[in-house]
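Task: encode each sequence below as structure tokens.

Item 1
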Amino acid sequence: MPERLHDERRRILVVDDEPYIGRIVQLKLEDGPYDVELALDGHSALAVLRSESIIDVILLDIMMPQISGLDVLAELRQLPHRRLTPVIMLTGKGQETDRAQAAALGATDFLTKPFSPKKLLARIDELFLS
């Protein structure tokens, strides 16, 4: 995996099939100390995740066409270089079964839409402080 230079901004992959939501999250995070790559579906997300590019945190929508966020999470946890990458699941559904499945697959956190961009930013900041 490529080494990070000390002064490089952290990189976040945002995966959401709703371009408007993805773009809002991207703009908010890029106002902070983060660089953001946006993927609009599971296939695009997996292409990025299979690469050797540096990704420090993944924000992953559960409900997406073709490949769900849970399927993406299951596959990325099989990738040796992504096994420990923090993943925050984002969803419009607050169902406990989704939470349980995401946790079982190794999700770091779970936020239900609509969520506060400030709360999301604070949670990401916490990941880097711990």
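Item 2
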Amino acid sequence: MRAKTQISRILWLETVAFMVIIALSWLHELTDMAHSISGIEYVPDWVEATTETVMVVLVAIPVMILTKRLVSRLYQLEGFLRVCAWCRKIDHDGEWIPLEEFFERKFETATSHGICPACLVEAKNKMRKPQAA
């Protein structure tokens, strides 16, 4: 659930940023900024401001869609557990710990040992076969 919250926060910040760009465009159009800064005669151009707004929205939509996809993929990749192929320890915050300890730390879950049906059959078959000397 943390990933969805982070994605929502990032998209919200992007939306705010694009809204600030639109607001600055309209602020420029509604005020006499050009005249007060450089002395140029102020002529409001509502068509230009509307065009700028439409262009910003047309850029914002694909940027936000791509950002959502990229951040979702990033969280998916970060969610993978690295397991040692030899000893089966798990990389947790840069420390290699046994699976049981990982569950204890991460999920506050105690573990117990058992045997799955497939391993039970294999163990029984090994015990039945006479071992070669």
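Check on item 2: The helical segments are 2-30, 33-38, 46-78, 99-107, 117-128. The CA atoms of residues 80 and 91 lie 10 Å apart.
End of task.
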